[in-house]
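Posting this for the archive.
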Amino acid sequence: MHRALLRVQKFQKYTARCLSDAGKAEKLAEFSEKSNYAIRTLDNSSPIEKRSLSRGFAMNRFEKDFMIYPEYTDSDDVRNIEGFVDILQKSLNLSVDSKIIEKEGNLSSEVIETLRSNAIFSVSIPKDFGGIGMKNKEISKVFEELSIDWNIYTSAHIALQVSNILTIYGSDEQKSKYLTALSEGKLRPAVAIVKDTNGGKCEQTVGPQGKSMLNGENIRVIGHHNANFYVVFGDNKGEQTCFILDETELATTDKIKFHRDETFGLKGTDIGRIELTALVNEKNVLGAPGNGAEISAELTGSGRMPFAAATVGMAKRTLRELSIWCNRTPSRRTDRGVLSDDSRSQRLVTDLALKVYSLESALYYLSGLIDEGLSIVVDIENSLLSMLTRDVLQSIISTQLELVGVAASDSAFPHEKIFRDITTLLSIVDESADVEQIGLATIATWATSTSHKRIVSTLKRWLKQEKEADEMRNPGLTHYIAEHAHPSLQMACQELEFSMSRINNVVSRLMTLSRATWFELDALSDLFGLVRFNPSLLNAGRAVFDLGGYIIESPLEKNW
């Protein structure tokens, strides 16, 4: 459980920004119960700690069921997924040549056949439609291997996103037709980039004989090479509707013309713009008309855990390769030592290894919660996971630049291409609004779920200052979480409970909109720390070098 607690102390950093106007929370879109990942506000019809893990923590409420790290109860399930992943890993190692993918500009037929034979395009598709129907923990384990090349990951990622929204929002006819075709590898999907800032537009208008028509230009999309199935979003009088377009069903007057961009990275993936003119009817509508905002949010949210899993897989390979490099490269400080002996190298690798440890723990914890149905709403957790993912990716690049030095800029360096692929991928996945949305969603729930009243008396505020300051320094125990965990986790559980109390106190003060509150936020950062207050954790970096990489068992393998 200590894996899941490592980053809880940083929760306040994400909830404390952009919260000065709690009234903005009312403008957050309400999504239907179909949507699993979109940021939203919640009512208080049931205890919030039973519906949302992060909201419960922020409000200093505790649900003991969340202290159980979700795991497989049957060891056969663990062996099955490990066997599946082992075969996939060997198949990818034999068929993938990243230089050829970059040179040819697409995945080779051998790579595509490897993905098909290992049923990668159907991992999340229900068995009723020819898929495997894997759970989130299993999908995460699979996607760890797919980051062997980010073009391969992107291809599988798009297929998973499309299958997810078809499963949730598709009609019976749409599911039967398109999920089956996708599981068989006959569908090559492309999706509109949701957060496009390049002026693309797609409008639903009235065409000939009163028929509905889609007209779009400069619509940025990302998808499989030579895509034959598109997911786009059309505007009609201020409402957004999701449309699916199958090229085999287009009329003779319809057209979809794709212009490929010359991207910095991901050169084996079709990234570009489309111009389209197509007659559409109810069979082309996914979900209900006007439901596009919800589906686009689900499209974005459903890809975050696979993205995190791929990042974990890549980070493990990176640490293994850095271990080899640093153990062979002479030290820049001593004549007889190697780079792995330098404390600076150990510090850099320690920081990366701990971030990977935290991301992996959070990923499988969240995946398990969803698989077990323990958490009803995971929107905030999913967005925080995305932020951790970006942090790890950026650390991978910076750590390698620091340790490898000028060689990292050499095109012959194996990770030079990965740098470009990551940069391109991060530029497409825009998460800038999530920090504000996380904060607003949390504070909106806090405000609607408590009986808090604004303090208007200056005298009352003055009398309460000392008490509140003491509560920040010594919040005390309320839930005694340690009683529900292993004795070795006593201190970690106490720190978690202290963090819950402090966050709740800060949110309470924020509701008064006091200017002084913002100065108190800075004080919180002094109450937390990891490597800074625990220098012995540098041993993690030393261990990576000594053991040849990141050798900590997967959360799926560990019996918690």
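The two ends are 7 Å apart (CA to CA). The longest helix spans residues 343-372.
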